[in-house]
Every structure is written in structure tokens, then in C-alpha cells.
Design goal:
It contains 18 helices and 13 strands. By secondary structure, the protein is of the alpha+beta class. Strands 1, 2, 3, 4 and 6 form a five-stranded antiparallel beta sheet that branches. It comes from Luteolibacter pohnpeiensis. This is AarF/ABC1/UbiB kinase family protein.
Length: about 425
């Protein structure tokens, strides 16, 4: 596999690439109208199939902002048809790689040397790729390393990329500014952090130490002397990604152990540290010798104290039927808008109640069995109903605290991993939830 040989860097070249994608979408739409006019029942599905592939292909060539937008939008399954979710989720860790000559150039810029002048061995093909960079395997003095190499120009083109992607995404997914702007704002913040590998190295070391007390959870060692602003080197960990481990004939006890480690890891970071690993997909976790290894702290989210208290207090209020406190909390979390009609709020109440009940259900049991597919099926079916309800789509525009984006993502991502493992886990509630229980 030769890999991508170049990334468009100038604003004109990147805009032209997205304009070409818009033209392809226009052609796809004309074909859709023709098919639907002839009574083809599969016309809409075919349009979305073709357009999802074309859009992801264009975004993946540009890397950076466009690919991060794809990754972010794929996490909220209520925003777009399933075809886009399937394609865009590839941005998590299977994005098309850059060719080796571009990697060599990155090393020469950062170190003044080629990879093979620093390491004894260096893989010419990436072993994984995502929106910001790709990973290569290297060897030095008999030791294996994972080397993350950032795509060239990602940080420099961020603002112009997001300005170009915004109208395309709004038109394609029928989103308004109130809905998409919080996503783009979060994309910009996270990208600015994720493109600073020196910051990621410091944070990875700090969070690894702060989470070291969690039983059965391990972290790679990071190597500042083999890292630079756009290159990050850590231990290479052999093992199985969580989704691969879940497909083995592992015993229920082994599954439970890894599932418990995942739960304890997130519980500690969210409720004790108030800063957490916000990228809970299977590619960031490896199972080796019965232990859970956490690989990547590129995407981390700190929780504002007021938001944290309101978010979990809302969960407790629903659980214990404290109706008198609900409206105030919903307003503070911007799920309710000040001055809106009683009718609007009454329409939203059952949707909000169901979503919070689903999210919080594991918290109120001493042990939760993720091997029962009923729970995850309920979450999926709720999302499907929400996605096709036009009144809800209109009503939820401009609602919700952007802070919740990553916290919801963390929990539903965690639940998905637990479901893959079919794990039975012991639940520990946050302290202040125990106080109100």
C-alpha cells in the first residue's frame, strides 16, 4: 500500500477539493431525483450511500479539520443517516495513511534526521491512522516503540477548513447554525490541543500517574527524547484491541475483569479527577495478559465544576422524582430555553426523561449486566426514533451544553465497549449521588 502522497495545504487547493465534493454531491442528488421520479424505492438510500463515500473520501484526503468534523458528527447518531455514521466513524482509527516519503519529510523537519537515522527499524507503512496523525512501529536497541506522526499542515489550515466545511455540512445534513456551531467550536478547541504533541506528552504522563491506582489498568511509557512538536513516541504494546478481544473465546471472568477495568478507569477520571479520556473507541484500548492498556490521551476533556454538578444532579432528580428542581436544571444545561412556551417544554419532557433514564440506568444498580443486549438495543432504538421525528429535530436546535457532547460520548462509548465484552460489572456511584439517593 503506497499511501496518500500529498495533502492539499493552501486555502485555494483545500477549498477546490471541497468544491469538487460539492459538485459530486450535486450529481448524486440529480441521480436521486431521477430515480425517485421513476418510483425507485431505493433512491434515497442509494443517494446517501454514494454521498457518504464521496464526502468521507474528500475529508480523509484533507485530514485535520474536515476529518475531525466527520469524526465528531459520527458520534451523535441523531444528526445524520446511518450511511454517514458508518463512513465517518472510519476517521476514528482507520483513516487512509500518508505515504512513507511524507513521513520522512516530517522527521527531517522535526529532528533534522530520517526515521532510520533515529531508530534501528521503522515501518514504512502506518499501522493505524486517524484525523490528526498516524502511527508507525519502530525498534531501537531491541525495544519496540509506537511513533505517532502528525499530518503536515493540520494546525495551520484549521480556521479556513472549518469555514469551508460549515456550509457543506449544513446543506448536506440539513443542519442549522445553532446545531452545527457548537460541534465546530468543540472541533476547533480539541484540534488545537491535539495538534500540540508536546502538550499531549505532558498530559499523558500526568494522567497516567493520576490514574495509576486503578487496578488492572496500565499505560505505556512516553519518551520525550524521541518526541517533538509533531512526533510522539511511546511504548509499543502488543495485544488485542478491545473489539478483537471481545470476539475471542475469553471466559466470562476474563470479560468481566476487562469490563470492570474500563468502568473503574472512567469512573475515577470523571468523578475524581474531573478530566477524562474522551475518545472511547476500541482502537484506544488494548488487552494484554489480562490487563487493560490505555493508549492515547490525545483527546481529553476537563469538566467545569458547575456543569459537572448540574449534569449528574439532573440524573439524580429524574431517578428520585424531584420534579420541582428539574426545570431550573434543564435551563442551566440549556436543554430548556428561557421564555419558550409550555407546549414546547411539554413536548421535550418525555424525550429528555427517556434519554437521561437510559444514560443513568447502570448507575442505580449494584451490578450491571452488559451481556443482556436489551439495554443497548433500547439505546439504539431510542436514537432511531429521535433521528426520524421531524418535530424533535426542529425542537432540539440550539439546545444543549457543548460540555455534554464529550461526556455523553464517553458514557455511550463506554457502554458500547462493555456491550462488546458482554461484561458484568460492579457499579460505584459518585459520592454526591449517593448523598441524594
Amino acid at each position: 500500500m503506497s499511501g496518500q502522497r500529498s495533502i492539499p495545504k493552501s486555502k485555494v487547493a483545500r477549498a477546490a477539493s471541497l468544491a469538487a465534493t460539492g459538485a459530486k454531491i450535486g450529481v448524486n442528488y440529480l441521480k436521486y431525483k431521477g430515480r425517485s421520479g421513476m418510483g425507485d424505492p431505493n433512491a434515497r438510500a442509494s443517494f446517501h450511500d454514494e454521498t457518504a463515500i464521496d464526502t468521507y473520501k474528500a475529508f480523509s484526503k484533507l485530514k485535520g479539520g474536515p476529518l475531525k468534523v466527520a469524526q465528531m458528527l459520527s458520534l451523535d447518531q441523531n444528526l445524520m443517516p446511518d450511511q454517514y455514521i458508518r463512513e465517518f466513524s472510519k476517521a476514528q482509527y482507520t483513516a487512509p495513511p500518508l505515504s512513507y516519503p511524507l513521513v520522512v519529510r516530517s522527521f527531517q523537519r522535526e529532528f533534522g534526521k530520517k526515521p532510520t537515522e533515529i531508530f534501528d527499524e521503522f515501518s514504512t507503512e502506518a499501522v493505524a491512522g486517524a484525523s490528526i496523525g498516524q502511527v508507525h512501529k519502530a525498534r531501537k536497541n531491541g525495544k519496540d516503540y509506537a511513533v505517532k506522526v502528525q499530518y503536515p499542515g493540520v494546525a495551520d489550515s484549521l480556521d479556513s477548513d472549518l469555514r469551508i466545511v460549515r456550509p457543506l455540512a449544513m446543506a448536506l445534513f440539513k443542519l442549522d447554525a445553532e446545531t452545527i456551531d457548537p460541534y465546530l467550536g468543540e472541533v476547533k478547541k480539541r484540534l488545537l490541543e491535539e495538534t500540540d504533541y508536546a502538550h499531549e506528552l505532558r498530559r499523558s504522563v500526568e494522567l497516567s500517574k493520576a490514574t495509576a491506582e486503578i487496578e488492572n489498568v496500565r499505560f505505556p511509557t512516553y519518551y520525550p527524547e524521541l518526541s517533538r512538536d509533531k512526533i510522539l513516541t511511546m511504548d509499543w504494546i502488543d495485544g488485542l484491541h478491545v473489539d478483537q478481544f471481545a470476539k475471542t473465546d475469553a471466559s466470562q471472568e476474563e470479560r468481566n475483569q476487562i469490563g470492570q477495568s474500563l468502568w473503574d478507569f472512567y469512573h475515577h477520571q470523571i468523578h475524581e479527577l474531573r478530566i477524562f479520556h474522551a475518545d472511547p473507541h476500541a482502537g484506544n484500548f488494548i488487552v494484554k495478559d489480562g490487563q487493560l492498556w490505555v493508549l492515547d490521551f490525545g483527546c481529553v476533556k476537563a469538566l467545569e465544576p458547575d456543569f459537572y454538578q448540574d449534569y449528574f444532579a439532573l440524573m439524580a432528580c429524574y431517578q428520585h422524582a424531584r420534579e420541582s428542581q428539574l426545570d431550573e436544571l434543564l435551563e442551566r444545561l440549556t436543554l430548556f430555553k428561557v421564555g419558550e412556551s409550555v407546549e414546547e417544554r411539554n413536548f421535550l419532557r418525555p424525550w429528555i426523561r427517556e434519554s437521561i433514564e437510559l444514560l443513568g440506568r447502570p448507575f442505580w444498580q449494584e451490578e450491571f449486566d452488559f451481556s443482556d443486549a436489551t439495554y443497548l438495543r433500547e439505546i439504539f432504538e431510542f436514537g432511531e426514533r429521535a433521528k426520524v421525528d421531524p418535530q424533535l429535530q426542529r425542537a432540539q436546535r440550539g439546545r444543549g451544553n457543548p460540555e455534554a457532547l464529550y461526556l455523553n460520548r464517553a458514557y455511550f462509548g463506554l457502554y458500547n465497549l462493555e456491550g462488546m465484552l458482554r461484561a458484568k460489572i460492579r457499579i460505584s456511584m459518585p459520592g454526591f449521588l449517593k448523598d441524594v439517593a
